[in-house]
Amino acid sequence: MTSVSSTQETWLRRFQQATPGALTLVCLPHAGGSAPYFLPLARALAPAVDVVSVQYPGRQDRRREPAPESLDTLADQLFDVLDAKPGTPLVLFGHSMGAILAYEVARRMEREADDVPLGVIVSGRRSPSRHRDESVHRRDDAGIIAEMQELSGTDPGIFADEELMQLVLPTLRADYRAVETYRHRPGTPLRAPVSVLTGASDPRVTEEEARAWEEVTTGAFSLRIFPGGHFYLNTRQQEVTAAIKESIAAFKSAAG
What we know:
Shape: globular
Strand order of the largest sheet: 1-3-2-4-5-6-7
Radius of gyration: 17 Å
Structural class: alpha/beta
Distance between the termini: 40 Å
Helix content: 25-40%
Number of strands: 7
Strand content: 5-15%
Mean pLDDT: 89
Low-confidence stretches: 1-5
């Protein structure tokens, strides 16, 4: 039987020490992403915020585990991990695929857990109430690589490493399948406030689709638009960090 602590060590990664009792910011990566993507954010927010990055199965040190088959399954698994860590003020932050995952975990927490998130910060993803028919996961390898290149979030040198690409592509395809087959189930809206961050020229999110996140919460709502595309975070780290700090402060204030 796997212990709670070992399960948390498998899923949750810390790169910086935080002040005891600090608020926890749980960071959920994009499709194909991994926990170290949020290392710069952890450095910027420590020690006042305990930044915890989620490591999905199917990549890096978890590469021998099957990649997630659906976002609902992944949300169930992550909820169980976080539900076993009670008593700490918590904010969820997800980028792209991670944004939908943050939303679904927050729904589960509000429905089933004693501890609920102070707020949810979503980035680079349209509202779950806005569906697009997408099928990147059905493309051949060249088609998936073309998608990665269009979104400009991957070091171009990786594309030249054929061996590495063969390791990465199955997981990336599985992640795209999970997020592209996700269907929002309408229900009770979140009570938690939602802050939305997006890039002005993101080809996967219009301003209207980003603003539609307001439809899925009865809490406070805010929208920040940054210069850049889908991975605007990579070039706007200081501004994004400042926005996250502002959102956390607002969540704390609202919670009293």
